[in-house]
Specification:
Blueprint (H helix, E strand, L loop, with lengths): L3 H17 L26 H4 L12 H8 L1
Length: 71
């Protein structure tokens, strides 16, 4: 699980990056899924969604809370 300190640092960072680089504030339909189609997705993705050898996010990561926190 992630600590409150980690999440409190993550949300403003993601919000800033999405605004600075004009990244759409959306996630893939299945955030735990690895799929090559994510390479062309316009939105927020994790390493694990782009490469099968990456496991940077715990399955318990709340993607919907991330979206709510960056609006």
């Amino acid at each position: 699980d992630y600590t409150p300190q980690q999440l409190n640092a993550l949300y403003p960072l993601v919000k800033t990056l999405t605004e600075w680089f004009a990244i759409p504030k959306q996630i893939v339909s299945d955030p735990l899924d690895f799929n090559q189609k994510h390479l062309t997705f316009s939105g927020i993705v994790g390493h694990h969604q782009l490469r099968p050898d990456k496991t940077d996010l715990h399955q318990g990561f709340d993607w919907n809370l991330l979206l709510k926190s960056i609006q």
